[in-house]
Automatic annotation (TrEMBL), chains A, B:
Protein name: 5-methylthioadenosine/S-adenosylhomocysteine deaminase
SUPFAM superfamilies: Composite domain of metallo-dependent hydrolases, Metallo-dependent hydrolases
Lineage: Bacteria, Bacillati, Bacillota, Clostridia, Eubacteriales
Pfam family, one: Amidohydro_1
Gene name as annotated: mtaD
Native organism: Dehalobacter restrictus (strain DSM 9455 / PER-K23)
HAMAP family (alphabetical): MTA_SAH_deamin
Family as reported in the entry's similarity comment: Belongs to the metallo-dependent hydrolases superfamily. MTA/SAH deaminase family.
InterPro entries xref list: Amidohydro-rel, Deaminase_MtaD/DadD, Metal-dep_hydrolase_composite, Metal_Hydrolase, MTA/SAH_deaminase
Entry EC number(s): 3.5.4.28, 3.5.4.31
């Protein structure tokens, strides 16, 4: 464990919207000791190393609240297609040919990309998730992992549930607590009520949260209406699934009463604007959610429907999407930054993340602001949302450890991972 | 003048959608000699230099068909505000304090950012445009420049028209033809019919085109309806302004009959998706324009309403915006790339640009594809639209001259420009 002193412009993402143009952060081990103007480190704080990041902005690491990391292997495999043929003819047949080892390399590729673009925590749902756990441990990042579960039939459902339980036993709190395990029933339209209830009971026994897709498309709404005569969220409430930690991804189609339900049960929303746009899913009612005090985080969804995992692009798209259909005042820059940091931490149930303040975990990133697209420097939050790109991130620290420095990844063998991912994706495509 | 041989993956943006994974381009002076697989350079072609860009994709330089370069000085000065207070309380008072020298530095900053993100040609409209011309000449880029003209009163209108004529005399075809001068009457709602007709006559005398804002907002439609009982485009037609080269920026609110008018008069459309989203202007009917064979290019608009000048972000937003309100099949990756290259060249009236093919101008860029967000390489066009960011551009060649190599700008003093722009923007803000 090391002690670092960082000198930079600092945007700690506090509620007071502090900003320190000549700031200083002291880190001891995995925790932040102090944040403020130059000279605020405690007397006698003796760093092992001083990181001089003048001209960089340091902010909390970004939290990606909904993704399917290993789907990087499908990046560019199929685009610009209607949803059902895309899934049935392209995505599902490809996924059928993926081995656990493929999941490991696809997840590793995602982690390279995430680190490079400033994401320090991801909330993931997929198959062979223990392979993703392995990649996360090696990368040094933070993750909430769940086994995506669909009960086509009772046996398949139960098998996947056993895998999720096994995942929990093996990896919950692994990597000095960097990994948390959640349960991942896929969606109301792919899981029966009986199965969801069993999942919920098992999750409750272990004190684990649930990560589920919800109200993503109009067709989902129609399906649930036809099947149960109600909406996906109301049906979940009727089944007794709500309560405890729940991350609901997408939440595009919700009426006022349902927004109240989200608030009542403290359901966290993972908002995925680029996926919702690229797949023509629709526009989630984010400003109304925020007005009600519902916790909202940002997510990229999988690389097959985005197609990158760049949370800076996601922030910009989140704001643009709302403004397009509302007013220029919707989702202001600082609000969007909050969603990608503090909001994400709340959704993920991580109490000491999402802000830079004493006692919080030392998860942070630096963005090189000495570039033409960041001048003049009238507003740092505005520049981070409307001008910054993933590639502008130069330093990444997670749990007090430097994972990227001056644009070099220190924990992952990027060259090897890119080559392996390419080879495996080609093999899978050839087998489809 | 030099002879270069470039080795790279090559996406020439031809109608046949060619792609050369191990390609080769021969350049002699300002022109492309050959494009194809390795070994297609003419026998006896003797390059001064071989540029080995293996693992880079080389494509035509991007064409930004609508911007106000010097507005980089307003980047982040005012955001997330309703349109009219934003203009009246922030943008216009700021612009009132800008000196010609400020315009020069603001334009230079824009050119740094454009080169860094792969834009080789811009279509610009602003005040003190001779300062922008000066910056363009120094940068080595290509530009179509026009003096933005508003006739608040007859005298102001005529003075600005004289400036535009002077600009034409001094700079048209300057820099080995890299600069073209157009005429820039601001918009139907800010110019009288009489003034527009005078401008059109002067432009015709000089053989110059016209660059104008058109049908950008619902409020513009209402104003013109109230004033003239018709739509902005129909009014322009009635005034006899259409015909000859016209670049119409925005074109958000057009009915079917107006789309037919655009087609009939060969009006080129400059589509600005990010500005249209950020200012809540609306969504232009791009797929319907393309179906009718209307020429459509992409533009960033000014940095105050975007807030960057990154055409890669603009491409992604163009596609996402259409898909959100239409279907996932709208604005496919290759169509968007065409808009940003070949479509832009057509709109700009530049006949030998926008594609890499023998005899065309040697304007091209390289994108470093050896990065995690470009793996696996299933589709180069998809990756360029959905994953690439301005910062991935490493090489820029305009008119056969290397302006950026390995991420270093060779013609502009970037450090000095950033510092000057910062200083001047602060001074202006303090004077408002």
């Amino acid at each position: 464990m090391s002690r670092y002193l960082i000198r930079a412009m600092i945007l700690p993402m506090t509620d007071a919207q502090d900003f320190y143009p000549q700031g200083e952060i002291a880190i001891d081990g995995d925790r932040i000791v102090s944040v403020g103007e130059r000279g605020t480190a405690p007397a006698g704080f003796n760093p092992d190393r001083v990181l001089d990041l003048t001209n960089h902005v340091v902010m909390p690491g970004l939290i990606n609240t909904h993704t399917h990391a290993a789907m990087t292997l499908l990046r560019g495999y199929a685009d610009d297609m209607p949803l059902m043929p895309w899934l049935q003819e392209k995505v599902w047949p490809f996924e059928d040919k993926m081995t656990p080892e493929d999941i490991y390399w696809g997840s590793s590729l995602a982690l390279c990309e995430m680190l490079r673009s400033g994401t320090t925590t991801m909330t993931d749902m997929y198959i062979s998730e223990e392979e993703t756990a392995r990649a996360v441990l090696e990368s040094g990042t933070r993750a909430l992992l769940s086994r995506g579960m669909i009960d086509h039939n009772k046996e398949a459902g139960n098998r996947s549930l056993q895998e999720n339980i096994e995942l929990f036993r093996k990896y919950h709190n692994a990597g000095d607590g960097r990994i948390k395990i959640m349960f991942g029933p896929h969606a109301p339209y792919t899981c029966s009520g009986e199965f969801l209830l069993t999942v919920k009971q098992e999750a409750d026994k272990l004190g684990a949260g649930i990560h589920i897709h919800l109200a993503e498309t109009e067709s989902e709404i129609a399906t649930i209406r036809e099947r149960y005569g109600t909406t996906p969220l109301c049906w979940l409430e009727q089944q007794g699934i709500l309560g405890g930690q729940i991350i609901a991804a997408h939440c595009v189609y919700l009426n006022d009463a349902e927004l109240d339900i989200l608030k009542r049960y403290n359901v966290g929303v993972a908002h995925n604007p680029e996926s919702n746009m690229k797949l023509s899913s629709g526009t989630a009612r984010i400003p109304e959610m925020l007005k009600r005090g519902i916790a909202v985080g940002l997510g990229t969804d999988g690389a097959s429907s985005n197609n990158d995992l760049d949370m800076f692009g996601e922030m910009r798209s989140a704001s643009f999407q709302q403004k397009l259909l509302g007013s220029p005042e919707d989702l202001k820059a600082y609000e969007v930054l909050k969603m990608a940091t503090d909001g994400g931490a709340t959704v993920a149930g991580l109490k000491d993340l999402g802000k830079l303040q004493p006692g919080y975990k030392a998860d942070m990133i630096s963005i090189d602001f000495d570039q033409p697209h960041f001048y003049p420097r009238f507003s740092i939050p505005s520049h981070l949302v409307y001008c910054a790109r993933g590639g502008d991130v130069r330093t990444v620290i997670v749990d007090g450890k430097i994972l990227m420095e001056d644009g070099r990844l220190l924990t992952l063998d990027e060259q090897k991972i890119c080559r392996e991912a390419e080879k495996r994706a080609r093999r899978i495509a050839s087998e489809v």
